[in-house]
From TrEMBL, chains A, B:
This is Peptidase. CDD domains: proteasome_beta_bacterial. InterPro entries: Ntn_hydrolases_N (IPR029055), UCP009120_prtse (IPR016545). It comes from the Bacteria.
Length: 275, 275
């Protein structure tokens, strides 16, 4: 599996991906899942991919040369001349459909789903930043202030902390920290997600970034974050009182049945009916 | 969906379940997923269920009358006369197979998987406590000191905190608190899991418990835990430094590329080859 997350803030964009790929438990490899497309002063785009590796590699290869034509005489839209991120996402969708046309039937005949999930975001000169999640069928959705982040792959372990922290006004480096905590929780509980990870932080209207880093177990910041988060989480956990059941303490709220709740079903003899 | 978790400690057992059931998003109901079977001074057992509600309700009904016979002349083992939790789990497996025989073919014809996941644990006079996860096929696995907890249903959101806290020596009420934090994270991020929840805490060798509570949004302890955990988690998050990229500070470890890592793939012109 994989875990990728991207966040759209007023201040910029954050992209984070792991690099573990597995075909069964006995075939685990490292493949990077992030690519940056950059034309200084014109466009800055990042693609994150999860799902079948042969499909996502083909999509990335074809995306470089894909021309989307709305009319026959059209010169064609590419990710390099698209005038909006929306159009660039359409080119990406078209590249996915191209791979589907080529490989879909053969994959289906082998019992393999056409499964790829992509996150594609960035900024093109003339409009604001945009962030899309692109599905296997080439259709896509766009992040909004209400839902400012997308995840693909093993998304559940790391979702609670994103839900607690991220809003459009979250500062850029704080969001990067949040993405790393989200990844840390995922690494903790799921073997199919693994280091190194790639992190890109993009500042709005800069059309380039030097905040690009590959993080392995020796990265000083991630080592600190991993250790501090685990230890402080434990301290917070310990600082919350254990439940008290029978009024042993007056300081701790009681673990008390609400008067409106029905009692739990308890069966005490073999003959007792369940319902 | 559902979220249930059960933990086996040296000191006892903790069981926690939510009560949301949904058949599509427009058909959400409340069904309790926990049943206690108790014969004072003889046996104490708890069953938690996830999966297809019609199957789990049938299993629970049949479990009351199921007799497992290893020989024809056998009187038959029931959950009420089983001499070990292992045998009681076998009776449960047999009840699942009974439902499969009755309903499996018709469900399959309607395109419905025979999907049920159960957690079954407790103690029978004469042996220690035991905890099992029981699958749709009626087979089961048992918790061990290395893996002292089982989850069924929407298990991923709440797994990291269990992995961080639970060991066999964790005190009983602390484990109950951990299960509630695990549930709180799940409630936060998944609509298909909902209040009220049922919590049972069982002390080893007691063969009964009065620590049984149905927790809704008015429960004083859960209200405190929910508020404190969210707020303190946020404080911990804020207390960890944001990443520093270019040595602005000497106190914070730098977000620095490891010298052994390969640089991220960056494509800067349409002509550039991907590989």
């Amino acid at each position: 599996m994989t875990y990728c997350v991207a966040i759209k803030l007023n201040a910029g964009l954050v992209f984070l991906s792991d690099s573990r790929t597995n075909a069964g438990l006995d075939q685990i490899s490292t493949f990077r899942k992030m690519i940056v497309y950059e034309k200084p002063n014109d466009r800055f785009m990042v693609l994150l991919s999860a799902g079948n590796l042969s499909i996502s590699q083909s999509v990335r290869e074809i995306l470089q040369v894909e021309r989307l034509k709305d009319h026959e005489a059209d010169e064609g839209t590419t990710i390099w001349n698209a005038r909006s991120m929306f159009d660039a996402a359409r080119v990406l969708g078209s590249a996915i459909r191209r791979v589907q046309e080529r490989d879909g039937a053969a994959l289906k005949a082998s019992g393999v789903d056409f499964n790829v999930s992509l996150i594609f975001g960035g900024q093109i000169q003339g409009e604001g930043m945009r962030l899309f999640q692109v599905y296997s069928a080439g259709n896509f959705i766009e992040a909004t202030p209400e839902t400012p982040y997308f995840q693909v792959g093993e998304s559940k372990y790391g979702k609670p902390v994103l839900d607690r922290v991220i809003t459009p006004t979250t500062p850029l480096d704080e969001a990067a920290k949040c993405a790393l905590v989200s990844m840390d929780s995922t690494l903790k509980s799921n073997l199919s997600v693994g280091l190194p990870m790639d992190l890109v932080v993009y500042e709005a209207n800069s059309f380039q970034t030097d905040k690009v880093v590959c993080i392995d177990e020796n990265n000083p910041y991630f080592k600190m974050l991993h250790g501090s988060w685990g230890q402080k989480l434990r301290e917070v956990f310990d600082s919350i009182e254990d439940p008290m059941w029978h009024g042993e303490s007056t300081n701790v709220p009681l673990m008390q049945q609400s008067t409106r709740s029905l009692p739990l079903k308890k069966i005490t003899t073999p003959e007792e009916k369940l319902i």
